[in-house]
Amino acid sequence: MAKLNDRGFLQASNRQPLLFDWIFSVDHKRIGLLYLYSVSAFFLVGMMLGLLIRLELIAPGPTIATAQTYNALFTLHGVVMIFLFIIPGIPAAFGNIMLPLQIGAQDVAFPRLNLLSWWLYILGAFMALTSLFSGGGPPDTGWTFYVPFASETPTNVSLALLAVFIIGFSSILTGVNFVTTIHRLRAPGMHWGRLPLFIWSLYATAWVQILATPVLGITVILVMVERLIGLGLFDPARGGDPILYQHLFWIYSHPAVYIMVLPAMGVISEIIPVFSRKPTFGYKAIAASSVAIAAAGSLVWGHHMFVSGMSDTAIMVFSLLTFLVAIPSAVKVFNWVATLYRGSISLEPPMLFALAFVFLFSIGGLTGLVLGSASADVHVHDTHFVVGHFHYIMFGGTGFAFFAALHYWLPKIFGRMYNMKIATIAWAIIFVGFNLLYFPMMLVGLHGMPRRYYDYLPQFQNLNVIATVGSWVLAIGLLLMFVNLYRGIRRGTAAGNNPWQAATLEWVVTSPPPEENFSQPPQVSHDPYDLQQAGKP
Amino acid sequence: MNQTTHGALSFRCLTTVWILLLVLTGITVGVSHLDLGAINIWAALGIATLKASLVVFYFMHLKHEPRLLVICLFITLLTLATFIGLTFFDVLYR
C-alpha cells in the first residue's frame, strides 16, 4: 500500500475521539464527506428498494409483494432517492468540498450553519425511516403526497411529512451558505467571469433552494394540519381546492428537479474541457444558461397537472413555458458538443460518465418535450413512459454526473487513484444495464401500462422482464464501481496533486487538500479552463 | 454592517409609518366587505404587500442597507408574486 506523505484534512487531530472529530467538524471538506457517505448509503438503500420494485414487476399478479407493500415500496424508493440522495447528492457533498477550493476560500461563509445543515439532514432521514415502523405503517402515497389520499390514508404520512419539512431546512441552509460564500469569499482575481462553471451551477441552484424550498415547507405543514385537525383546505365540500395542493407541491418540486440537475450539469461542464484538452466553448452562454434554467424552470410546474382539472388557459401557458426551458438546456448540450469538437479527447472514467450523461440527458430531455406538450401528455400521463423519462433525467443525468464527480474528484479528496480498467468496465456495465432497464419502461408506457400498480396485463410482460433483468445488470455494475472506488481510496496508488492536468483552483493544492485549503489567499490570474495554465493559481 | 451608518429614524417618521399601517389595515377590512369579483384578491394582496414593504423598509431598516441586499429581497418578493400569480391565474380561468 502506497504511503501518502501528507493526509491533509483527513489527518486525525487527536484533540477528541475520532468520531467526534468528524461529526462535529466545521471544516467544509469533512462536512462534504459526511454528506458524501450519507447520500451514498441512502443511494444503496434506494437501489435495493428499486430492485424489489422491479422484481415484483417481473410477472403479472403478486410476485413478491401485495398491493399495499408495493405502494409502500415505491413511496419509500421515491422519498429516499429524491430527498435523501439526489437533492443533496451533488451540491451538499461535492459542492461543499469543492466550492471553497474552487473560488480560493478557506471555508464556506457560515461553517457552523453548514454543520447544522448536515445534522438536520440526518435528523430528517432518521424520522423518514422511523415513519416506516411506527404509527399506521409505511406511507403509501407516492413521494408526491397528493391529497385527498394523503390527508386520509391511515399510514404514517404525518411523520414522513415532518421529515421532509426538516430536510427542506437543511437544503435551505446549504443554499444560503453557498450564495453568501460565492458573493463574499472569492479570492483576489476570481471575478464573476472566472468562476468555474460548477460554481455558476451551484449559484443558480442555491437561489432555487432558497426561493422554492419554503413553499414545500408550507405545503407539508398544510397537509399535516389537514390530517390532524381537518381544516378542509383541500376539500371542495368545505370550500377548499384539491388542485391547490398540486400547485403548491409542484411550485417546489418542479424547481427541485433543477436543484437536482443543475449541479450535475456543472460537473459535466468541468469534466468535458479537461478531457478534451480545450477551453470550454461558450463559457458565458453556459454560465448564463444555468441562471436561465433556474429562472425559467421555476415557472413551469403546471406541466405536472395537465390532466388534473386545471384550466385550459393555464395548461397552454404552462406548456409554452415548459418549451422555453428546453432552450437553455439545449444551449448547454450544444456547447458541450462544441467543446468536444476537434478536441484531444481522452476516454478516462470521468469523461466516459460525462459523455454518457450528455447522451442519456438528451434522451430524457427530448422525451420531456413529449410530456411537456399538453396534447401528447394526455395520452402518456401516469404511464411508465413518465417513469422512464424521469429516470433518464434523474439517474441518466444526475446519477451519472454524480458518478462522474466521484471518479473526477475522489483522487483529489483522498489523494489516491482507483483502478482505471475496472472503472471503465463498471461504466460499461452500468451504461448497458441502465438502458436495458429504462428504455423498455418508456416503450411499455407508450403501449399503455400505467405506473404505480403492482399488477399489469399479460401483454406487457416481455418488456417488463427485460427491464427487470436490466436492473440486475445495473446493480452489478454499480456494486463493481463502488467496490473499485472504495479499494481505490483505501489502497490506490498516490494520485498526485493534479492527475487530470485541470486548471481550476482545487488542483493547485495538495491531494488531499490541507485543512486550511490555502496557506494564503491565491491570486487568480487565469480563466478556469485555460489548460495551458494547469497547476497555477 | 456598521451600526453608525444606519442613522436613527426620527420619531415622527416611525409614527407616520405606524399610522399608515393602521389606515391600510382599516382599508383591508373595508375592502373585504365589497364584492369586486377577481379584483378582491388583487386588492387584498396589494395592500398586504404595501404594508409589508413599509415594515421592511422603515422598521427593519432596509432603506439604509446596501443596494445588493435590496435587490436580493426584491428578487425573492418577485418570485413569490409570480408563484402566487400563476396559481391564481389557473383559478381565474377555470
Describe this structure in words.
- The complex is a heterodimer of chains A (537) and B (94).
- Chain A is mostly helical and 537 residues long.
- Chain A has a single domain (24-533), classed as Cytochrome C Oxidase, Chain A (Up-down Bundle).
- In chain A, 67% of the residues lie in helices and 1% in strands.
- Residues 1-5 of chain B have low confidence and may be disordered.
- Chain B is flat.
- Chain B contains 3 helices and no strands.
- With 94 residues, chain B is mainly alpha-helical.
- Classes of the chains: A mainly alpha (537), B mainly alpha (94).
- The A-B interface holds A 183, 207, 210-211, 215, 241, 243-244, 247-248, 251, 298-299, 302, 309-314, 317-318 and B 68, 75-76, 79-80, 82-83, 86-87, 89-94.
CATH H-tier superfamily of chain A:
Cytochrome c oxidase-like, subunit I domain
Question: Total number of helical segments of chain B?
Answer: 3
Mean pLDDT of chain B: 85
Largest sheet of chain A: 2 strands, antiparallel
Order of helices and strands of chain B: HHH
Structural class of chain B: mainly alpha
Helix amount of chain B = over 70%
Largest interface: A-B, 22 and 15 residues
Q: Unreliable runs of chain B, pLDDT <50, ≥5 residues? A: 1-5
Protein structure class of chain A: mainly alpha
Q: Strand-and-helix sequence of chain A, N→C?
A: HHHHHHHHHHHHHEHHE
Strand content of chain A: under 5%
Query: Overall 3D geometry of chain B?
Result: flat
For the biggest β-sheet of chain A, the strand order reads: 1-2
In total, how many domains does the architecture of chain A comprise? 1
Provide a concise account of the structure shown:
The complex is a heterodimer of chains A (537) and B (94). By secondary structure, chain A is mostly helical.
Keywords:
heterodimer; A: about 525 residues; mainly alpha; Cytochrome C Oxidase, Chain A; two-stranded antiparallel ribbon; B: about 90 residues; 3 helices; about 0% strand; disordered N terminus
